[in-house]
Amino acid sequence: MENKIKLALKQAILKSLPVFQKFCEQYQEPYRVWSKRKEGGWQGIYEQRPSATQVFMAAEKHLQENASDFANLFFSTYSEYGEGKLVGCYMGMEQIANDKAHILKKAIGCLWERHETFDCNEACVDAVVSEFAEFVESPSIRLRFQSQLQNYQMTAPSLKLAENLTIRRLDSREISAQAAALRLSAASA
Prior knowledge:
By secondary structure, the protein is an alpha+beta fold. The protein has helices at 3-26, 52-58, 60-77, 102-115, 122-137, 172-188; strands spanning 28-36, 42-50, 87-89, 92-94, 158-160, 166-168. The protein has a two-stranded antiparallel ribbon with strand order 1-2. A two-stranded antiparallel sheet has the order 3-4. Strands 5-6 form a two-stranded antiparallel ribbon. Strand 5 and strand 6 form a beta hairpin.
């Protein structure tokens, strides 16, 4: 990917992050955080944390403005991602050109998922931009698969298997996110 496109994405992200951080103070919600107790079992407590959904909705106008230069450069160079073109794999495809801020939203969402803050340094932003550039240039994509193992114990922190597969314990952050997703899917069923 051309450096000017990567730079435009980086600038759009860096311009958007302070807006998101400002909205974080306004839009809070209770979030249940799970942690393992010393005596065994799990305990969940509620903490206030920014509502990423509300923050993204509040920042929509800024996202559209900040994404403009990047989107124009990207879609003019990579026409295969443009209007009416499907992007993805058989598990899910999208028309990303319908929303000029789609890529910017996904990049900022990635930063939120990794760091649980919009107050990210330039190195964090560079990492996301580089990963996006690799995705665009790569003929294949990686998928993350996660499954729960029951009645399985191991002392090592992880177990490497063939073909780049790993068995590892989820950390408390991942457990909390998984529990929230399960509650959400149960509530919508």
